[in-house]
Amino acid sequence: MEKSQLSLPFHYLVTPELDNKSDVTGFMDQLERSLVAGIRLVQLRGKTLSPALYKKLAIEVLACCQQYDVQLLLNADPELLNEVDAQGVHLDGIRLATCQRRPLDSNRLISAACHTLEQLKKAEALGVDFVTLSPVLPTASHPEAAPLGWQNFAILAAQTKLPVYALGGLTPQLLDYAQTNGAYGIAGIRSLWGGEMSLSGQIPPQG
Predict the structure, then answer these.
(1) Are the CB atoms for 147 and 169 separated by under 8 Å?
(2) DSSP state string for 85-116
(3) What does the pLDDT look like over 34-54, one tens digit per residue?
(4) Is there a contact between 111 and 73 (Cβ–Cβ < 8 Å)?
(5) CB neighbours of 73 closer than 8 A, spacing ≥ 6?
């Protein structure tokens, strides 16, 4: 499938981590603000949550997403879709590495986290629907990770037919620039969270 043929929004929200002691009400308020602002594709992170609490949160997040016709992907074992009827899953690096075949039918969405050409090729071989490629720029969520930079991002993105979301240190204002470097769209945590961002009005990148 060519990148232009896949009907996906250009902005992909990855929710910030919510731990077992976090304010769920505040989290849901910020999520709804994001959806009101125009986000239509969400990945629910929760690596620090117990499976039971993640499932409980996923059910609540799904109900919120359904109100705004938003597609929700769970960053979890694909088996959880048997209990939480989200639109698909996101494969982190570990799940991507251990998958031997596409874990869901074609009516479900699968995204995968990629940082290298090897991972991009593995995702493509599995038949995932799209990927994130990161980190493009320095990012507060992973300060130890060396950024790819736009040149390396463009080289890697050109070597896959999968839609690629640029992730890491990006803001909505960099969408046009990301697309000129081979991105389908941009993904983000802080920059797309809480509804204070604007999904229009692009500006040129700095540096």
Answers:
(1) yes
(2) --SEEEE-HHHHHH-SS--S-TTSEEEEEE-S
(3) 999 999 999 999 988 999 999
(4) yes
(5) 41, 42, 43, 44, 86, 87, 88, 89, 90, 109, 110, 111
The amino acid that residue 113 corresponds to is A
Cβ-based neighbours of 88, under 8 Å, separated by 6 or more: 71, 73, 74, 81, 104, 108, 109, 110, 111, 129
Residue for token pair 């961002």: 197
- 8: which residues sit within 8 A by CB, 6+ positions away? 41, 129, 130, 163, 184, 185
Taking the model in full, what pTM does it have?
0.90
Superfamily holding 3-192: Aldolase class I (3.20.20.70)
- Helix, strand and coil in the chain, % to nearest 5: 35, 15, 45
What phi and psi values does residue 155 have, to the nearest 5 degrees?
A: -65, -45
Tell me the C-alpha distance between 127 and 62, whole Å.
25
Q: Within 13 A of 203's CA, how many CA atoms are on the CB side? A: 8
DSSP string, 48-70: TS-HHHHHHHHHHHHHHHHHTT-
pLDDT at 200: 55
Positions of the chain with pLDDT under 70 = 1-6, 20-21, 140-145, 196-198, 200-207
Write down the domain spans for the chain.
Answer: 3-192
